[in-house]
């Protein structure tokens, strides 16, 4: 039985999302089918596209055409110049994509980058970003953000908060939830039967027995010990500065990190163009390229499609894993 295609949201239409969708289609062709959900007026001039009424119809579109599921926006756009009037359309597209994937009309969602300030200014968007809005649409389920590539998978336990707020935010309950969601996601979405998870310490040298901070011994270690006693292959807290060289990475399937930069610096160093943002915990598969709207280069034809292509391939593989 043929699986339905992915649905790719347009994201911020004045950013690089529309042009990268066209380039991703040219690279992926029929190997990873997707339908682009957005306003065709926002595609680069000269784009060859075919309107489809349902995602399934994308399978019959010529490989040199972009299959488009049209969604009318309030205004046209100029690349690099966001139009707040289009914010409502961006939000509607995300919700429509969720409806498509939950109904079975699409295999997974790949989201192009959005711009949070434009959404706030134009529509009073109350969510910090894609991840939180998708979790809300799915029924306010708990989720975690994973950054993944063939070289490394990382999950930050705390994300977009000041570094000074991390120690208080990194509670035992939060850390346990993040590890459990990571463990379940590795099984369900990546097909790893017995995942190995490494947990980074918060402080230098993982606290060095309390000499460099108490949180590692008092908060992180008991959570790791409790989950290990349940049979989970989890280790830590480990010194973060020795977790990401090749021999260390071979010992685990994902690293759970204490804060944003501790997780994102290593993966962006190892695979800046190929990293993929994955939301674990949703009842459907969602991936996204690990970059922003890049207004400064939008419309210039220089943006690299690597991360979006990787996001499509990963979403396609993850959706297949859920069917096994």
TrEMBL record:
Record-listed E.C. numbers: 1.1.1.262
Subcellular localization, as worded in the UniProt entry: Cytoplasm
Requisite cofactors: Zn(2+); Mg(2+); Co(2+)
Source superkingdom: Bacteria
Gene3D superfamilies xrefs: Isopropylmalate Dehydrogenase
Binding site for a divalent metal cation: 160, 205, 260
Reactions it catalyzes: 4-(phosphooxy)-L-threonine + NAD(+) = 3-amino-2-oxopropyl phosphate + CO2 + NADH
Pathway recorded for this protein: Cofactor biosynthesis; pyridoxine 5'-phosphate biosynthesis; pyridoxine 5'-phosphate from D-erythrose 4-phosphate: step 4/5
Protein name per Swiss-Prot or TrEMBL: 4-hydroxythreonine-4-phosphate dehydrogenase
């Amino acid at each position: 039985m043929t699986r339905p295609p992915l649905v790719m949201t347009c994201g911020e239409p004045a950013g690089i999302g529309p042009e990268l969708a066209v380039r991703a289609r040219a690279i992926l062709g029929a190997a990873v089918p997707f339908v682009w959900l957005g306003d065709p007026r926002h595609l680069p001039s000269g784009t060859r596209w075919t309107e489809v009424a349902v995602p399934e119809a994308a399978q019959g579109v010529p490989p040199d055409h972009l299959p488009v599921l049209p969604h009318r926006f309030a205004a046209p756009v100029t690349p690099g110049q966001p139009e707040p009037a289009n914010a409502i359309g961006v939000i509607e597209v995300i919700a429509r994509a969720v409806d498509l994937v939950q109904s079975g009309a699409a295999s997974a969602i790949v989201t192009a980058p959005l711009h949070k300030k434009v959404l706030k200014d134009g529509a009073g968007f109350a969510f910090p970003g894609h991840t939180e809005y998708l979790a809300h649409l799915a029924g306010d389920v708990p989720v975690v953000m994973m950054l993944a590539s063939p070289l490394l998978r990382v999950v930050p336990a705390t994300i977009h908060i000041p570094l000074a707020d991390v120690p208080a935010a990194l509670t035992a309950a939060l850390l346990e939830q993040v590890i459990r969601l990571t463990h379940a996601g590795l099984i369900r979405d990546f097909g790893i039967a017995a995942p190995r998870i490494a947990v980074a310490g918060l402080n230098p040298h993982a606290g060095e027995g309390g000499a460099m901070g108490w949180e590692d011994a008092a908060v992180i270690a008991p959570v790791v010990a409790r989950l290990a006693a349940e049979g989970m292959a989890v280790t830590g807290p480990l010194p973060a500065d020795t977790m990401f060289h090749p021999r260390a990475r071979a010992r685990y399937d994902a690293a759970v990190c204490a804060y944003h930069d501790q997780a994102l610096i290593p993966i962006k160093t190892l695979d800046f163009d190929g990293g993929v943002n994955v939301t674990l915990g949703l009842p459907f598969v969602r991936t996204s390229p690990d970059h922003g709207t890049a207004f400064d280069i939008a419309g210039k034809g220089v943006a690299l499609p690597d991360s979006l292509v990787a996001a499509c391939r990963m979403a396609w593989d993850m959706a297949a894993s859920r069917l096994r």
